[in-house]
């Protein structure tokens, strides 16, 4: 994902900086760096650690008025601006189908590997308003959920 984002930024002529964090204090340091670099936005990559720290990430983004996009709807539900990622409900549904096939006697090695096909876009309008942002109607129309 990182390589794709870097290529997209380069194609658009946008500066892109990578910040890493492996613990809570490194998240604070990353946000301080974000502020020093006068970053215009933040992309939070898909990572179980970041998911476990979503409250901290959303709070810091709000404190620093940093528009941010996250990888799961729970971030937007917690006050993040936008999330776009796989539908956890759809993934669990597919997991249940696979488990059913195995319980009916299918060999796991014979089952095809599948990638997620259902993605959801969630926009938090309360956060957009707090950041002074207007989300275009064309984006709102594409959203699976709009939090008002």
Low-confidence stretches: none
Q: Determine Rg (CA atoms, Å).
A: 18 Å
Number of helices: 8
How far from one another are the termini?
30 Å
Rounded average pLDDT? 93
Structural class: alpha/beta
Shape: globular
Strand order of the largest sheet: 1-2-3-4-5
Largest sheet: 5 strands, mixed
- SSE string, helix = H, strand = E? HHEHHEHEHEHHE
Task: Indicate the proportion of strand residues.
Answer: 5-15%
Proportion of helical residues = 40-55%
* Total strand segments: 5
Describe the structure.
It is built from 8 helices and 5 strands, in the order ααβααβαβαβααβ. With 148 residues, the chain is α/β, with parallel strands linked by helices. Strands 1-2-3-4-5 form a 5-stranded mixed sheet. The longest helix has 16 residues, at 88-103.
């Amino acid at each position: 994902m990182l390589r794709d984002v870097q290529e997209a930024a380069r194609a658009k002529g946008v500066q892109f900086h990578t910040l890493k964090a492996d613990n809570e204090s490194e998240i604070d340091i990353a946000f301080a760096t974000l502020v020093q670099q006068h970053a215009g936005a933040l992309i939070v990559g898909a990572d179980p650690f970041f998911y476990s720290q979503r409250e901290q990430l959303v709070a810091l983004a709000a404190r620093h008025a940093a528009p941010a996009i996250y990888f799961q709807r729970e971030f937007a539900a917690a006050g993040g601006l936008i999330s776009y990622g796989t539908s956890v409900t759809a993934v669990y549904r597919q997991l249940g189908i696979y488990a059913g096939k195995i319980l009916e006697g299918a060999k796991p090695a014979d089952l095809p590997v599948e990638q997620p096909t259902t993605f959801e876009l969630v926009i938090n309008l309360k956060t957009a308003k707090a950041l002074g942002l207007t989300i275009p109607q064309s984006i709102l129309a594409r959203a699976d959920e709009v939090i008002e």
